[in-house]
## 1
Amino acid sequence: MSDTEPAGYAEDPLDAPVFAAADSATTGPAAVCRSVVKTYRTATETVTALDRVSLEIPRAQVTVVVGPSGSGKSSLLRLLACIDRPDAGEVLVAGRRVDGLNARARRRLRQQQVAYLFQRPGENLLPYLDATAQVQLAAQLRGARVGADQVRDLLERLGLGGRADHVPRQLSGGEQQRLAVACGVVGDPALVVADEPTAELDTAAAERVLAAMQELARGGVAFVLSSHDPRVMAIADGFVHLDHGERTPSPPTPRSARGGTL
Ligand SMILES: Nc1ncnc2c1ncn2[C@@H]1O[C@H](COP(=O)(O)OP(=O)(O)OP(=O)(O)O)[C@@H](O)[C@H]1O
């Protein structure tokens, strides 16, 4: 993505950590969208991927974004992860408005408050670092002081205690994705965003990754996942349904009896 910004987008005003005021950074929803519009312009047409979508992502919960192919799920996740910016509307992460920030400021906020997990487990990791070093680097980039004990504990919780000195090619796909989750949650970001996190995993590996996400969410971080996978829906505390770029009421889902619409 280019860092070149059209005029009018704000630099981060302070060259300091991008935390909002302590109260809104650590309380309230992890993220909020208000009447968000996202369009893509091609040579021949303008596609409206999101049309006035509003929602709140609660902390300490797993929110699953569902909808047919092309309904805008990835577009929404990219806005929440501060990778893209909406054409209109407001996006707040950890209480801070991010829609007006330029690429550099968004990148800094992302480092501290958001983790984005790619579908392919290997793409979330550096090939030459072992599991311990991956988590330490993620913490360092987030500006968090995390001791060796905490890294070891986190790897243990994710079932990677015996893999601490393994590099990604020595790990299975499921282990790689759990390591990516460890890197995502270390240093207490507000939000971990994952687009189709089980798409590349077999059933057993998917279930372990999802169980880890569900358990870690209880610690306070918000997980936002997009998926068509019933196993992902089964761990949802709430759903956001999209159709043709619009937020729609919840149709029946496998776990609609438990998860609410947020
Ligand atoms: N870079 C782009 N340029 C043009 N159109 C795009 C671009 N990215 C997405 N779109 C269009 O925006 C709409 C929403 O796409 P998006 O990828 O957000 O949907 P999705 O629900 O994640 O789909 P899927 O489940 O197939 O991954 C679609 O019509 C898509 O073709």
## 2
Amino acid sequence: MTTQKKRPLYIRYAGPVLLETPLLNKGSAFTVAEKQAFNLEGLLPATIETINEQAQRAYQQFSQFNNDLDKHIYLRNIQDTNETLYFKLITSHLEEMMPIIYTPTVGLACQKFSQIYRRKRGLFVSYPDRDRIDDMLQNATKQNVKVIVVTDSERILGLGDQGIGGMGIPIGKLALYSACGGISPAYTLPVVLDVGTNNQELLNDPMYMGWREKRVSGEEYFQFVDEFIQAVVRRWPKALIQFEDFAQANATPLLKKYQDELCCFNDDIQGTAAVTVGTLLAACHAQGTKLRDHRVVFVGAGSAGCGIAEQIVAHMRDEGLDEAEAISQIYLTSSKGLLTDDMSVRDFQQKFVKSKAEVAQWSSDGQSITLLDLVRESKPTILIGVSGVAGLISEEVVKTMFASCPKPIILPLSNPTSKVEALPEDVIRWTNGQAIVATGSPFDVVNYEGKKYPIAQCNNSYIFPGVGLGVIASGARRVTEEMFMTSSEALAECSPLVKGESQHLLPALSDIREVSRYIAIQVGLKAMEQGVATKVEPEVLERAVDKNFWLPEYREYRRTSF
Ligand SMILES: NC(=O)c1ccc[n+]([C@@H]2O[C@H](COP(=O)([O-])OP(=O)(O)OC[C@H]3O[C@@H](n4cnc5c(N)ncnc54)[C@H](O)[C@@H]3O)[C@@H](O)[C@H]2O)c1
Ligand SMILES: O=C(O)C[C@H](O)C(=O)O
Ligand SMILES: [Mg+2]
């Protein structure tokens, strides 16, 4: 990545207001000349520090907290007072701090959102204020918004309905847009749509800060979301909108409604599919297999499960199977067992249901076909957990799979850590060290019989920052399925295992910015090929990626004349 000296910024704030503006505040790094020009004399200690010195102090303070939620609160406080320093700090310690600002700690921060609330960040768009959404967007502290992450908080990770507490997720995702995808925090806006909550604990909690009503649903809900979307289109017509952590019943309908009309995507459906297929492509490469050689069982048939299944089908087709053959190798289970044609299922699950007549004899109790029945009978080579339920991938399930598959690929992807379908160390032990394992939340290396097994974090955070950068740099007006497929392939190409560099399935976090840049260029090229980009020259795209890649360094300030 090339770094260029940035032009000075012309600033119209001064004095305490400048110090209270997180995008502009430099704290002890204001120079003598700036202190004079911006009425800061006397407001700061005498020593002028570099951003590295500031980050050193902040890291020392961070290290003094001994629980992750306190560390999270501390980092969020830096983010709300000095965004440049925040990104300097977290990008210098990404491996240590990503689990604090993002999954899994962000889950707890969402659950405790009203209790730990400190300062404003993002937009709270509440249902009772629905006739004033345009005004709210005018109030946003960011004027030139390029990426919005929006949630209605109904399915926060595997933790269910968190009311306005779900705001923690858009904040965390957008922090990664800047830290991993180089998108300036000046361009990002986290939004929570407050349509009430069905979480009775929150409704009973006197501290709860959201609209204290049951969730709005049905037509009124979709109309409200549409009012928000149309207001965004009026204010920032080119902004990329990422839908995040919507419940299963709304996630797919919203995506279908808007994906051909706006520049938008659903991260849980499409981002998750892309990172999972990227991980599977890397695993296949390690085994010398193709995706089309595999039989895949899903534990969970919701947004993530069906999104991944669709993209696996698309890749199997690219590898020569026809659609029906590809679908026949994929099995989805919900809490009622294998999806079969005698069940009532959602539209997006329909194509994956199996004929009950053909599989009825698989059932051991003559009724539903449980996960164990399915694994015993279908003999999968890949098992993917996206249920949000801890422990579903049991010892018996794994050992049954292993009995007919000597090199199983097992991905317990549910977040946060407390919801993981199986612990990696157990899976490694139950398969005598033969399984390839990746999880959604971060896990330590597993030591088994003297050997070390690194556990890849198969999380959509490997995908959305690069996709976002590619969309911005190419000026894409839509985010297509093919752009996501390209992002999976680009991620797999960056796998250290594929490159023969190490046993790691996915790249190290220390390389994530280079990986995002590579994904961005491939995604931008795909957008051009498909005619949805405004830039059309590959060299122009590469330059735009580098030009858009924001790095956390202070810029020189000059005073605007009023
Ligand atoms: N690693 C990642 O990047 C990533 C991305 C997206 C989602 N996820 C995780 O995946 C989980 C599910 O997300 P989603 O958006 O698909 O949710 P969802 O609510 O749309 O789907 C959950 C599915 O699990 C099924 N389920 C519930 N109990 C079950 C049981 N006992 N047996 C089998 N299936 C059961 C439900 O029927 C449903 O089909 C969450 O925990 C989320 O954190 C991880
Ligand atoms: O937020 C994450 O860590 C991944 C994913 O979007 C999820 O909902 O679990
Ligand atoms: Mg999510």
